[in-house]
Amino acid sequence: MSTAQQHLSITDIVDDIVLLKDGGSALILKTGAVNFGLLSEREQLAIIFSFGQMLNSLSYPIQIMLRSNRLDISSYISLLDKAQLKQSNPLLSEMIAKYRLFIQNIVKENEVLDKQFYVVIPVSYLEMGLKALNNQERLLRAKTILLPRKDQLVKQLGRIGLQATQLNSEQLLRLFFEIYNPPSGQEDIHVGQVRLTAPQQPVVLAKDNPQPAIIQPPQQGAPLGVPKTHPFVVEELEEN
Fold it and tell me: For a Cys-Cys bond, which of 46, 88, 142, 236 suits 25, CB 3.0-4.6 Å?
């Protein structure tokens, strides 16, 4: 009998590393966000320039994932109910009740989303060598390659004002379980690849994958950088 695991690209999650069926591996960073629209023009340009510098500094592909969930405010409503019951001042109790109703109406009339941002750093089986490896050797070699990449990317994201942390094994299991078992109509996932284009000669930083997966490594052979003397244009590829 066929199981769901047979259709996934993931074979195991060990020591905060995702092991893939094709022999590759990956780790996942969770990042914060910047409210770009509230920044001044000068601040926006500084972030764009820093983001471009970060991409130019990479010699490996990355994948950016945006996960949107409808915000669950049930626990917050319960907290307001408890606060109202404990309130001895009738005026304050009435204000809490009105505020509770206000929050409920906002969520009911508008789609309030909780957005989460992730950066996937993959390593292909070709980078780890063609020699057949057991799981322990494979994990050690993947860590040797991925951990320095993680440290570099965390530092570069920090210059943009984004704090990034690596997901541990438990967080990875919970993430993939929620991705593959979403409540009906409660989740929307966007997986984006990022590339840089130089004048008259596009340079793909992360190549399109015809069969998208959350942590599927890109196909080999794509150029992985642009000369730093070239002006750059940051583009987001169309969703697969």
Answer: 142
